[in-house]
Write a structure and sequence with these properties.
The chain has 161 residues and is α+β, with helices and mostly antiparallel strands. It is 19% helix and 38% strand. It has 4 helices and 11 strands; from the N terminus they run E-H-H-E-E-E-E-E-H-E-E-E-E-E-H. The strands form 2 sheets. The chain has a 6-stranded mixed sheet with strand order 7-11-10-9-6-8. Strands 1-2-3-4-5 form a 5-stranded antiparallel sheet, with helices on both faces. One of its GO terms (molecular function) is RNA binding.
């Protein structure tokens, strides 16, 4: 993912970002940002949010998402998929309802969720819920839009650091 430009946030921009992270993911998570935060803009329109040399969040299509490395610090609602769905999810496929074995019933359409495998509970992807959690285990249809997954360009940048 070639960088278009990289810059440090001003104090007022950082304050707005901390507020947005706190509103979306909780106040404790906002504290992980630190005082010096950089934005790396890519040619694909993805802004990587970097603090202390670590990529913590990214902005895609105007929405803020955590990286898979942040999942342990953020209490995201979970969607578990069967082992047959795992190869598809880590190749970037959206999560289909028949592959879901469980979903947090508190999920609302539009929520940021983490997709995990049923056997080990390992994070596979960060996604955007297309359905409420109670409706995800349907016989057909898409349930979660895959935004960031193991092995994608953001993941490779995380591993390189």
């Amino acid at each position: 993912m070639p960088a278009k430009r990289r810059y440090r946030l001003r104090k007022d921009e950082l304050k707005n970002l901390v507020r947005e992270v706190g509103d979306r993911f909780g106040g404790a998570v906002a504290g992980t940002l630190g005082k010096e935060v950089e934005i790396q803009e890519s040619e694909e329109g993805i802004d990587l949010i970097i603090s202390g040399g670590r990529m913590l969040f990214f902005r895609k299509n105007g929405l803020l998402f955590p990286t898979l490395k942040m999942v342990d610090l953020i209490q995201l609602k979970r969607v578990a998929v069967d082992m047959g769905a795992v190869p598809h999810v880590v190749n970037g496929a959206d999560v289909m309802s028949p592959g879901i074995v469980s979903a947090d019933p508190e999920i609302k359409a539009g929520d940021v969720v983490v997709v995990v495998d049923e056997r080990h509970g390992k994070p596979l992807a960060i996604g955007l819920a297309l359905l409420d959690g109670s409706a995800m285990r349907a016989p057909k249809g898409k349930a979660v839009k895959n935004i960031h997954h193991v092995g994608d360009e953001i993941w490779r940048l995380l591993e390189a650091r």
